Amino acid sequence: MKKLLYSLITLAAIYSCGTQAKVSSTEAFAQSGNFHVIGFYNLENLFDTYHDEGKNDYEFLPDGANEWTETKYQKKLENMSRVIADMKKDNGRWHTILGVSEIENRHVLEDLVTMPSIADANYQIIHYDGPDRRGVDVALFYKPELFKVLASESIPFTFTPSRIDWSQWTQEEMDQFRTRDILMVRGLIDGEMFAFFVAHLPSRIGGKGADLRPRGAEIIYMRAMELQKEFPGIKIAVMGDMNDNPSDVSMTDFLRGKETIEETTEEDFFDPFLSMLKAGYSSLYYRGEGNIFDIVMVNKALCDAPEGSFRIQPIVKNKYYGRIFNKPYMTNQGGQYKGTPFRTFSNGAFVGGYSDHYPTYIVIKK
After folding, report:
1. What is the pLDDT of residues 20-51, one digit of tens each?
2. Cα 128 vs. chain centroid, distance in angstroms?
């Protein structure tokens, strides 16, 4: 009898440990206090079916190269909203802040947030029409009952002042260059001051991007340091498709991204995805190699905050402070692109996938 009782107790303990192992940190947070999910998602060409005057969006028209019909557009909206809804299921609550990129205009944002699967989130939108020639912008979704907006601005890409040598560029080239603006939104979460930057830095297409991405990072950094001086103690999160890895010079030098909290000073940012990149994680594939271009990093005030105020939390294996959200349906399960994100178009053909990027996020908690 004693042996039987011991066996039952042992099995119960094993079952309990196994069950706990399956519970994510965010699920545990949902039961234990005040936490917020802050993340970013490149929506991969979320275009409507109408032409925006002055923008090169012709491929995303019904008679364009992509034969972009209302049916395809609705499928795209369903896919994007499914991912956002599934992140809510995993985390136990909606993102408080969700930055997005590769969106055409406010119309597509309004269509997305009112999709049935995510309408209950009551997301509000901050968006500015930017100068990108294709018409793609960045934007921010936020929950108004959790985040009180105080100010926002659309920061243009400029070439000066900069520590980058632009002598290879002519003045005409600089005058004609167009890319996405950087969005900054400042506000309050539970009385604490925050600023969120959302960026989509210049792509790797063409020979001059190696200077353009560091310049974009430099613009963000300079504005962030201004905010730290203007609002001592402000907590800052920088997010976006950086078109660079956390280990590239734009992130490590121009945004001063650090791998650990311990080495992060008031003039640095803690980049949780730097250690994840080294561990083999990826948020997209570029030229056949896994990368993490979708980055969320935070300043010292948010990564080394005093007890009782919001601070970034480890959420993967109780070790990594960032998460790359990846479900099987978001990934190619076979064929040439097995293991890579299941995207909307493949080799020029509509395949009905989700995005060529996985969303990424962090969690903050008091």
Report:
1. 333 445 555 555 568 999 999 999 999 999 99
2. 18
Name the residue among 273, 204, 287 with its Cα closest to residue 244: 204
pTM: 0.91
Which residues are CB-contacts of 336 (< 8 A; sequence separation ≥ 6)?
Answer: none
Structure tokens at 284: 């997209």
Convert the pLDDT of each residue in 157-188 to its tens digit.
999 999 999 998 999 999 999 999 999 999 99
Q: What is the largest distance, in Å, between two alpha-carbon atoms of the chain?
A: 89
Instruction: Give the whole-angstrom CA distance, residue 222 versus residue 216.
Output: 10
User: What is the rounded CA–CA span in Å between residue 136 and residue 203?
Assistant: 13
37-365 has CATH 3.30.70.260 classification: no
Place of tokens 């980058």: 164
In the chain, domain spans: 37-365
